[in-house]
Amino acid sequence: MVEKNIASVPDVFNSAIRIQMLASLSVSPMSYANLKKVCQCSDGTMSHNTKKLKEEGYIIDVKFHVSKENRDAARILSGSKIIPRTFYEITDLGLQEYKNFINLILKEYNKQQITEMQEKGEKNYEKDLRIAD
Q1: Which domain holds residue 116?
Q2: What is the number of structural domains in the chain?
Q3: pLDDT tens for residues 8-19?
Q4: Residue 54 falls within a domain, yes or no?
Q5: Residue 61 pairs with which residues in a beta bridge?
Q6: C-alpha angle 111-132-2 in degrees, rounded to nearest 5
Q7: CA-to-CA separations, 10 to 56, 59, 60, in angstroms, rounded
Q8: Boundaries of each Winged helix DNA-binding domain copy (predicted)?
């Protein structure tokens, strides 16, 4: 994302759910269940938004099966009921685009704050605000 203008942000960032997903995944990979819980959304909303993020190359999903008897292990025990698990992970592209988006938001916010401080006649505002590069 090379945009310098908030109006030219990719469509991926037009959804608060997708922004929340990227924010959460920027910290660590998450299971479907945990990501759904953090985003407080339905299965349909999860499916729609993860699909969009995957299509854009911002996240990947990792699927594996865990036995019912040993849910914490990523291996299959013979004769056990198998439970599929999906984890999501942010890609390098996704992380970079998310950081660019956050920096753009910070830059726009700081510009607005500087304008308001200038209009009020305040001095030394530049040292009080961090302009994101």
Answers
A1: 91-133
A2: 1
A3: 788 999 999 999
A4: no
A5: 88
A6: 100
A7: 10, 15, 18
A8: 17-76
